[in-house]
TrEMBL record:
Pathway: Cofactor biosynthesis; molybdopterin biosynthesis. GO terms for molecular function: ATP binding; molybdopterin adenylyltransferase activity. Its EC number is 2.7.7.75. It comes from Crenobacter caeni. Belongs to the MoaB/Mog family. It catalyses: molybdopterin + ATP + H(+) = adenylyl-molybdopterin + diphosphate. This is Molybdopterin adenylyltransferase. GO terms for biological process: Mo-molybdopterin cofactor biosynthetic process. It is an enzyme of class 2 (transferase). The keyword DNA-binding does not apply. Keywords: ATP-binding, Molybdenum cofactor biosynthesis, Nucleotide-binding, Nucleotidyltransferase, Transferase.
């Protein structure tokens, strides 16, 4: 394992018209913060935003988190379905340098294990500069499942969650080196010859 840096800066964005206007309390940001704090070994610093489903605002927020705040990883929650106001993937693709289609495919594979409507998700993963941006589901339980994967009754991983590949991806694109606690999710890196 490579030597790790001191901390990881992560952008967290909850996209919700109702939560951002105070109709209900946002659950996405606390769920992301709690899961990441439990999963990542190194100290983490979070830069958070709770915003409505407005594509220009989502794009501006993602750009700010990457270009100005220096977040190596940005996770969004909400706004990934087929409804007209669900524009998080559109905004994410609009600010991307490159798409990472495997992340969206794997998120849907994990979610399909639990619900057939996961096929309606438009979640994407992209690279902007030296940052990875991933669109996650909106519900805390679904966020955890997508990041961790599917485990059998014996505790063994049946379907890998997307976070297994996140540390190595961030490292490959020039971001900080960090590791995870294997009891939450095991970060995968190829073995050195």
């Amino acid at each position: 394992m490579k030597e790790t840096n001191n901390s990881v800066r992560i952008g967290l964005v909850s996209v919700s018209d109702r939560a951002s206007s105070g109709v209900y309390v946002d659950e996405g940001l606390p769920a992301l913060r709690e899961w990441l704090a439990a999963a990542i070994v190194e100290p983490t610093e979070f830069v958070e935003a709770l915003i409505p489903d407005e594509q220009p605002l989502i794009e501006a927020t993602l750009k700010r988190l990457v270009d100005e705040e220096g977040c190596a990883l940005v996770l969004t929650t909400g706004g990934t379905g087929p409804a007209p106001r669900d524009v998080t993937p559109d905004a994410t693709l609009a600010v991307a340098d490159r798409e990472m289609p495997g992340f969206g495919e794997q998120m849907r594979q994990v979610s399909l294990y639990y619900v057939p409507t996961a096929i309606l998700s438009r979640q994407v993963g992209v690279i902007r500069g030296q940052s990875l941006i991933l669109n996650l589901p909106g519900r805390p339980k679904s966020i955890r499942e997508t990041l961790e994967g599917v485990r059998g009754e014996d505790g063994e991983v049946r379907v890998h969650g997307v976070f297994s590949a996140v540390p190595y991806c961030v490292e490959l694109i020039g971001g900080p080196v960090f590791d995870t606690r294997p009891e939450v999710v095991r970060a995968f890196r190829p073995k050195k010859k």
